[in-house]
Amino acid sequence: MNDFSAEAMGLVIREHRQARKPSMTQEELAEQADYGKGGAVSISRIERGLVSPGEHRLAGIALALHLTPTQLRQEAEDRTRSLARQRGRRPVKLRDQVAETKRRHAEINEKAAQRSKITQEHGEGFNRVHDVVRDEFFMRFVELAKSISGAPEPEGPGEEEIESTGETPTAIRIEAMSAGIANAIRGAAAGGAAGVAVGGAAAYGAFTAAALFGTASTGTAISALAGVAATNATLALLGGGTLAAGGAGMAGGILLLTGMVAAPAAALAAAGFYVLRQRRNKKEEERLRTQVEAAEAALDQSQKGFDTMVDVLSRATVIMEYVEVHGTHALEKWRASLPPEPRDWESLGHEGREQYKEFLSVSGCFLAASMINVPALLSAGPDDLREMGKAMDETLRYADKTIRSIV
Fold first, then answer.
1. Which residue spans within 46-200 are E strands per DSSP?
2. Co-location of 122 and 84 in the same domain
3. Which of 111, 137, 243, 385 could cysteine-pair with 380, CB 3.0–4.6 Å?
4. If you write DSSP's letter for every residue of 266-290 in order, what string do you get?
5. DSSP assignment, residue 193?
6. Does a structural domain hold residue 128?
7. b or e along 143-169 (b: 16 or more beta carbons within 10 Å of the residue's beta carbon)?
């Protein structure tokens, strides 16, 4: 894990940006660092210490500033220690102590409020595009695939391949998801539970449950490969649709996701009475200072989990947006090329059959990106968070690369 605070990294980035000749704007940095729409807002939040950039974002920022990621990290670590020393110097006079504690109290309140706002923005942004891809690509592909009789049973990962690795590699897990989707399509075509009306949270929830709790052609449970035990709560959130559509969706999970600010919020609420007092004695000041420090510590401890959550949701949203534009277009072209119903596997021709397999792969990647266990980031310790972040990064990289190579 990095040994720098989000505040320190933000200060370092801002100083390097402003030190350029001529001074670089936040918009220019965002553009050169390859941020997408609304990049200047992201840079502003980084510089204010609300979010710390992930590895791939940090690399882009460093390149734009003519630095290396290692240089930025080292400077941020040095600045973190400097800030800690400054905060350790307590004012001598009681009135100065009171003023400093009030300022820190206000800063933590603002940071907690901003963190909730950022979480909601990313959650709702992901939820919107997820719901579109669910209905316009995933479920439409399911309905088209159900109309094709005689599709071969999918070849899932072999048992020897699975057993030869200590941890199931990302490619095998996603391959297993694609196999599960194909098996669920076969079951739906035969009148199974997944054969409900196209679109909507209920159809998606029923179908993905059938796909993930089914078995691959090897007989290996898909749940064992996909880690459903750890992610089914996330499926309930992501598969439920938006609040406006009557479901839970990612928007319904906002309270869970913002649970990371509960501890500091509680501490600050308890301290609020003393902040409002015009005069405080030394004992009251000590009590308030202790509560504010506890709130600061709670936010600091959850910062890396929060940063990872923002990074994961942002990257997953970009993947979904790509499928929304290119995947739905490719699927429509495939639909137009299909022979009239009733249609069978052989009537698709070689190209049509290959496209069927490719859409299965895209669907597996979509499902994998949808089911990343974001809420678990909030309670993970440093070691677990490091491993979870690595696994999520691998999943998103693989899904993005695979989808872009197909559509």
1. 148-149
2. no
3. 385
4. HHHHHHHHHHH-S---HHHHHHHHH
5. T
6. yes
7. bbbbebeebeebebbeeeebeeeeebe
Decide if 216 contacts 179 (C-beta within 8 A): yes
53 with 153, same domain: the answer is no
Rg of the chain, C-alpha, whole Å: 25
Amino acid in the structure at residue 189: A
pLDDT per residue as tens digits for the range 12-38: 999 999 999 898 999 999 999 988 778
Q: What is the DSSP string of 323-337?
A: IIIIIHHHHHHHHHH
**Token match 């963190």: residue?**
115
Amino acid at the residue 73 = R
Quick one: 206 and 309 in the same domain? yes
Q: Could you read off the pLDDT of 279-315 as tens digits, one per residue?
A: 667 887 888 888 888 888 878 888 888 898 888 888 8
**Residue ending a domain, choose from 54, 89, 124:** 89
Contacts 24+ apart (CB under 8 A), 230-237: 230/373, 230/376, 231/371, 231/372, 231/373, 233/373, 233/375, 234/371, 234/372, 234/373, 234/374, 234/375, 235/205, 235/208, 235/209, 235/370, 235/371, 236/205, 237/375
In a domain, 272, yes or no: no
Specify the pLDDT at position 43. Answer: 96
Torsions phi, psi of 52, nearest 5?
-110, 135
Q: For residue 74, what are the domain limits?
A: 1-89
126 Cβ contact list (under 8 Å, min separation 6)? 250, 313, 316, 317, 320
Nearest to 148 by CA among 369, 2, 359, 376: 359
pLDDT band at 168 (very low <50, low <70, confident <90, very high): low
Higher pLDDT, 270 or 232: 270
CA dihedral of 292, 296, 299, 302, whole degrees rounded to 10: -130
User: How far apart are the C-alpha atoms of 326 and 332, rounded to whole Å?
Assistant: 10
Read off the pLDDT band of 138 (50, 70, 90): very high
Per-residue pLDDT reduced to its tens digit, 83-127:
988 877 878 888 888 888 888 888 888 888 888 788 878 888 888
d(CA 369, CA 249) in angstroms, rounded, equals 15
- Shared domain for 84 and 128, answered yes or no, is no
Q: Which CATH number does the domain housing residue 31 bear? A: 1.10.260.40
